[in-house]
Amino acid sequence: MTVERDRWQDEERFWLDGPAFYRDTMAEDAVMVLPKPAGILNRPDILEIIQNAPRWDSVSFEDEIAMKHGSAFVLAYEAVAQRGDDTYRALCSSTYCEADAGWQLIAHNQVPVY
To answer: Which residue range or ranges hold the DUF4440 domain (predicted)?
Structure first.
């Protein structure tokens, strides 16, 4: 597999998987900027929220851009997530960094599309 394909698979898992994946794949100093009421979160806050948050049934990505720069990899895309009859669309970006433990998410941002 390529680094890019692996990061897209990780990105999908962040939408669909639970707390264990977050703990294993998110950097210790990771941050997320999510729509309110969540807001700006650090790793402990993210792990607390994901513990009880319902997961998405499916997600697809549109208008994908991927870029590797040194030890960083950036993904930008529009997400279309489904949970039952609910659909959520957001413009997103995620930054991964290559570390001793492998590739880890260091930053994620979502801007809802209405």
So the answer is: 19-105
Domain containing residue 80: CATH number: 3.10.450.50
Distance CA 23, CA 61 (A): 23
Specify the DSSP class assigned to residue 19: H
- Whether 81 and 61 have beta carbons less than 8 Å apart is answered as no
Verdict on whether the full-model pTM lies above 0.90 = yes
The total of structural domains in the chain comes to: 1
- Give tens-digit pLDDT for 34-43: 999 999 999 9
Containing domain of residue 38, as a range? Answer: 3-112
Can you tell me which residue has the tokens 């402990």? 44
pLDDT tens column, 62-94: 999 999 999 999 999 999 999 999 999 999 999
CA 23 from centroid of its chain's CA atoms: 13
* Distance (Å, whole) CA 105 – CA 13: 12
